Amino acid sequence: MSKKICFVIMGFGKKKDPISNRTIDLDETYKKIIKPSVIACNYNCVRADEISDSGIIDRSMFALLINAELVIADITTYNPNALYELGVRHAVRPYSTIIIKEEEDINPFDINHSRTLSYRHLGSEISTLEAKRCIRELKNLISTVTSSPLIDSPLYSFIPKVVQPTLAKEDFDEIIGELREREDSIYSLMENAKEMMAKDNFVDAALKWKRLGEMVENDSFFVQQYALCTYKSNVPNKLVALTTALTIIEKLKPFNDAESLGIAGAINKNLWKETRNIEFLNIAIETYKKGWSLFSDYYTGENYSNCLEQRALKEADLEIKTYYKIEAKRTRKDVINIVLSLLSVPEEELEEVKWRSATLSNCYLALGDLSKANEYEQKFINENPLNWEIKTFESTKKELMELNDL
């Protein structure tokens, strides 16, 4: 290829960060920071999934780790594959490796002396200002590494006489072939699935997520999205879709992240609506409660409150009924405080505030503050939500109005 190659080492999709317990969308980092920086520096940007049909390291990946003129390794969430590949790169190349990570993560001991670019991730998004700052810094770093390469590998720093392995250009070209954005790459399939979801085509989106799950085994993000799209597809009917989705998401048990807990809770809540079997509602309450208690996740907190109010309607014991209502009210107030603190970041720095606005609107509505509810509903609408997102919001709003006789 005419351009030099930058090989990007990182996870993909949404991953749980073991340090902060947040769920980080790594694709946001790739799209908004890494790829635009690399392209601006006139490199061909290649991520691992763009050269492999599976998540297994193959000849092409080893060839790129040896011969790529530049490697950027994002070690956020301590993805084991990314850390392994970074180790291989440090073993085979003395210089031109850049490490980046989310600011709350700590560098592992073996590389804590290495220069690292840190960025601030909001979990599901990266602010516009932060992306611009990081692109500027990463471009400068790439230019420095390109023009004045210095040893950045711990191995070659401590044992400078180590003989570097080589791969002949003809062998490299034969292994790699012509690199290009392949239609069957993991990244391309994910973008395609997201486009289908945006168009309410949950049937085909579910098939894409299922295929991705088959390509990369044991990846929770693909299972979560497969379950989500399956239950929203309502195919062949709502009950079958929900039951199938429940089977899919339960492969991730025991649930240990807010995303899985939120989807599992939603499936059980909708099964309760469809069947009126109280056990589904009880499971939804416990699932949402776990997400709220462990992670202070506003989505699971809001839905925990909503399910408690529905459970109160079915409770004969007056004391337990009162407890459900008080707990729902208390939780909503806590949710409001958390979301307002998240929105304390200047709004122009956020790419997306719609779900936070939707949550505030619903919580204020349930607490009887109609003025605030209308204010945040308008903010939600102003964010141009997708059709399915509007339907989800309106469905919750209708439930709350019925529960509170509004």
Short description:
The chain has helices spanning 26-40, 59-67, 80-92, 128-147, 154-158, 169-176, 186-198, 202-215, 220-233, 238-249, 258-275, 278-295, 298-313, 318-342, 354-366, 370-382, 387-403; strands at 4-9, 14-16, 23-25, 43-47, 70-74, 97-102, 116-119. With 406 residues, it is α/β, with parallel strands linked by helices.
Describe this entry's structure for a reader:
- This protein is an alpha/beta fold.
- The protein folds into 2 domains: 4-176, Rossmann fold; 186-403, Serine Threonine Protein Phosphatase 5, Tetratricopeptide repeat (Alpha Horseshoe), CATH 1.25.40.10.
- Helix content is 60%, strand content 8%.
- The chain contains 17 helices and 7 strands.
- The chain has helices spanning 26-40, 59-67, 80-92, 128-147, 154-158, 169-176, 186-198, 202-215, 220-233, 238-249, 258-275, 278-295, 298-313, 318-342, 354-366, 370-382, 387-403; strands spanning 4-9, 14-16, 23-25, 43-47, 70-74, 97-102, 116-119.
- The chain has a 5-stranded parallel beta sheet with strand order 4-1-5-6-7. A two-stranded antiparallel sheet has the order 2-3.
- Helix 3 links the parallel strand 5 (70-74) and strand 6.
- The model has no long low-confidence stretch (mean pLDDT 88).
